Amino acid sequence: MIPNITSIIIFLPLIGALLTMAARGKDAVRWAALVTTLITFGLSLVLWFGFDPAVATNLAPQLADISGPILADSLDIKYYVGIDGLNLLLVLLTTLLGPLVVLASWTYIKKHEKAYYTLLLILQTGVTGVFASYDIILFYIFFELTLIPMYFIIGIWGGENKVYAAVKFVIYTLVGSLLMLVAILYFCYVAGDAVNNGVFTADYYKLLAYNTPLSMQTWLFFLFALAFAIKVPLFPLHTWLPDAHVQAPTGGSVILAGVLLKMGTFGLVKFCLPFFPNAAQEYAMLFAVLAVIGIIYGALVARVQPDAKKLVAYSSVSHLGFVVLGIFAFNLEALQGAMIQMVNHGLSTGALFLIVGMLYERRHTRLMEDYGGIAKSVPVLTFFMVLSVLASAGLPGLNGFVGEFMILLGSFKSTVIGNPLLIALATTGVILAAVYLLWMLYKTFFGPLTSDANREMSDLNARELGLLVPLAAFMIILGLAPNPFLQRSEPATEHLLQVIQEKQAVVLEEARAAQFAQDVPLSLDLPPVTQEIEAPLRETTHTP
Amino acid sequence: MELSNVYDTLLADLGSGFSLVILAVMGLVLVVWDAFRNDAPVLPWVAGLSLAACIGWEATQLGVGRTAFYDMVRVGGFASFINIIILGSALATIVLAVPYLKKIEHAYGEVYALILFATLGMIVLATANNLVTIFVGLETMSVALYIMTGLVREDEGAIESALKYFLLGAFSTGFFLYGIALLYGATGTMYLPEMAAGFAAREGVLMFWAGVALLFIGFMFKVSATPFHMWTPDVYQGAPTPLTGYMSTASKASAFASLILVLYYALEPVLDERWTLVLALIALVTMVLGNFLALVQNNVKRMLAYSSIAHAGYVLVGLAAGTADGYSGALYYLLIYTLMNVGAFGVMAMLEWDGKEGRVQDIDSLAGVGLRKPVLGVTMGIFMFSLTGFPPMGGFFGKFAVFAPAVDAGLTWLVIIGVLSSVLSAYYYLRVLFVLFMRSADESPDAVREAAFPVTPASAAVVIVCAGLLLVIGFVPGVREMAATFFDAAVATTQVLP
């Protein structure tokens, strides 16, 4: 086993960024980026084999690296990264998409290549860091770090309306994440008072050990959830997404859809649910309804887009709705489905964005009406398109089916959001997905071949084939044999749900005890009550 | 006080006042030198080396805090920390000012003497332990700054800003002095550590609080907190750009340091929640107003001026927390703020150019510079992201250092407004980056021409050092700790007068 493997995977792209900065000439830059990301992906396979799902990760992640403190010795903020069942697949997805994005940008990016690939590599470090962090401040640092390269990638190499999209993307995310920062600060102080001898703590496991009192849970939960819901994006906070996606260059879109959006759903699973379990359950229905609205709304809006890229962008809103639905179902099937669906969406939507990008490179238009019948001129591309569309639409045997099926099954059984009507509505999302995706397929690839430009379109070259083959392979593998992947995350999700349940019970018990202590005069001096009374007292000193 | 050994004591303390002595003597030397050999090219070197020597000396004194000259000033510890900020800003300013002043054909030797005098005043102000010393420092600093603001005599804007600065500054000095008089009347002492005890021993509540209020008006003026910020944009715009960077960082840092000393040593025992609320409200209005007004500015220097008002608001959040953590967080913020603003004004000093109607500082003039001049573009990018408060840049850690204690002190509402106002700030900081990187020079008639900005290696080094420090400073916990150690309860008690 390679020592510090997790840190190496996080920071290798950053070192690659230094290389691309130092490299001279377009080719040297591209190759430096490609080689770096390929090595990173190769190393990340070590995680897959080195990770043992049977080992419990209740108190520490595997393959962990700890050093620090950072910022101040007096605060418990440190560099703490590692791998557990929740983040393993997402880290692997990030490292897999890394070289693919570099290849996708190979000819698409025609100006300032050095800056582009440097930013791309910095972005990969940020995203991997987000998934691998076990210190909430470190998580926040990586979370914000992703904004900087993305702002430039959209803003410099984007389409006509790039600046509007870039600024909207940053401002939207910033509102959520800065409010979350306030909640983080507050939470770390309060939790530090209770579980860390009064010292501010950002350690994930220490925070996890703290039973947040009921009165605090609601507003802290909403400040956290807001940041993540904007990132996902959950309806009605999704309006930045179509702009950002449509304007971003192909590589940016793939990274954005593939992994950046998952930072939101991942944050919901990792922080919102276990830190504030009672509030999360109480408002689960709200999130489920918003998720279902997102599923249907995203699908309906996608159906009427003339622009293929915009269609895929809105399909993300719809697909991520399923993930959020699965997260708030509070049972194993749905949560497992959400975990695998995050990966599935990264693969199939990534592939769709890549293909739309390839079409755009050939014809310089994204309007579906400009295409039609190109299946005859580009049969290989068509094959991959059909595969990706079917995977995205949830055809059994391909990856999308596994996640969506588990989510819908789990939500239907859920005691928290298991309203049959709601789940039935969510299920229509699968049908609608088939409608808009097949419609796009029909409009662009089938039908009569009318224009000469389309007739002369060239099929995939070796580079593009190399891009799509891995994605297609994973779509089929995940569809036919999802178990090895599900097994990786199952102990972690199971444990998470168990922690949530236990914490919910403890918090309710504490709240009841506090209530009891208020009702009963203190002179009675009941031993357990005097101990419990500390909690509300502490609250009053901290409540603004 | 034994009068017979006054000179012995003062002479013995001269060593402790190394920076004060060096700056005063070298300032005078430069004035005389300049009178005989005008425009001697060695003048900036002499000034720079004096400052560097002072920085080196202060760096050795970081650990030990004490007082000197009959407890008139503090030396070492807190004092050294803030002095290094001030001296560093002055040194960077001299490096940036040399090519800039040459370019605008105002390379007067007096500038360097004035910088030394202003720095001397700032150090006295930042480390004073006595209200009279504070006032002496404040005036030494201010008078030198008034002159530097009006350096470009032919420029109406510069004259206007100098006059405005002088008139409003004199006005605020009046408040300040009156506050000192009232405080003396109410407490019977000028020494900060004795003030609370003096207040407790006498009657005169109204006089005391009136004195505190007037003193604070003076301070708020110097740190440009709302509603005493009106002078800031005009003065920052009119002054020569490197000197604006100096003014916006060193003078603000020293005024804040002095305010922290007053709050921590003199007023701590008597301050209560009402006072916290006053500071919190001033912080709130300052952050929100500064950021809102910066949104609509087209002149980059003016935009940075409003942004510096907003940053004063962030520092005030740390002061409003009123805890040792809050004060040390504010101190840490001042260090990071100084790096960011010296750098940002430094880059602007290299990017503005002489148009037909005065110097062009419009945001449009920066179109496309970022990709043509990557060093300036990337460093400016780091400064802008840092000013917005993006990790991993220092600005984030600075904000963290002032916001976290405020949350701990129960001011969560203030911090929420603080972060929302920094979302506003993201808009205008990112606008600079957008123009730098995403707009091509062809689209903008005002764009900087290729030959318009000579980037000397020394001035490039200054902005690179600032940017580099901002990238790593958050991950060096020692710096934050250093700021924190000065506010231990033990330090406070041992430093009270014999």
Please give the structural blueprint.
The complex is a heterodimer of chains A (544) and B (498).
Chain A (H helix, E strand, L loop, with lengths): L4 H18 L3 H25 L11 E6 L11 E5 L4 H17 L8 H20 L3 H10 L1 H11 L4 H34 L8 H5 L5 H18 L8 H8 L2 H26 L1 H6 L1 H20 L4 H20 L4 H32 L15 H15 L5 H15 L6 H26 L6 H4 L6 H19 L2 H37 L7 H6 L1 H9 L2
Antiparallel strand pairs in A: 1-2
Chain B lengths: L5 H8 L4 H19 L6 H18 L5 E3 L4 E3 L2 H26 L6 H18 L3 H19 L6 H32 L7 H7 L3 H18 L8 H8 L2 H27 L5 H23 L4 H22 L2 H28 L1 E3 L2 E3 L8 H4 L1 H15 L5 H15 L3 H27 L18 H16 L4 H9 L3 H6 L4
Antiparallel strand pairs in B: 1-2, 3-4
Structural features, described:
- The complex is a heterodimer of chains A (544) and B (498).
- Chain A has a two-stranded antiparallel ribbon with strand order 1-2.
- Helix content of chain A is 74%, strand content 2%.
- Chain A is mainly α and 544 residues long.
- The termini of chain B are close together.
- Chain B has a two-stranded antiparallel ribbon.
- With 498 residues, chain B is mainly alpha-helical.
- Chain B has a domain of 227 residues.
- Chains A and B meet through helix 5, helix 6 and helix 7 of A and helix 17, helix 18 and helix 20 of B.
The count of helical stretches of chain A stands at 23
Strand order, biggest sheet of chain B?
A: 1-2
- Summed up, the domain count of chain A is 3
Query: Can you give the mean pLDDT of chain A?
Result: 86
Elements of chain B, N to C (H/E): HHHEEHHHHHHHHHHHEEHHHHHHH
- Helix run count of chain B: 21
Largest sheet of chain B: 2 strands, antiparallel
End-to-end gap of chain A = 49 Å
The whole-angstrom Rg of chain A is: 24 Å
Beta percentage of chain B is under 5%
* Helix content percent band of chain A: over 70%
Rg from Cα of chain B: 22 Å
Q: What about the largest sheet of chain A? A: 2 strands, antiparallel
Broad shape of chain B: globular
By helix and strand content of chain A, what is the structural category?
mainly alpha
Tell the overall outline of chain A: globular
For the biggest β-sheet of chain A, the strand order reads: 1-2
Structural category of chain B = mainly alpha
Please report which band the strand proportion of chain A falls in: under 5%, 5-15%, 15-25%, 25-35%, 35-45% or over 45%.
under 5%
How many DSSP E strands of chain B?
Answer: 4
**Quaternary organisation of the protein chains:** heterodimer
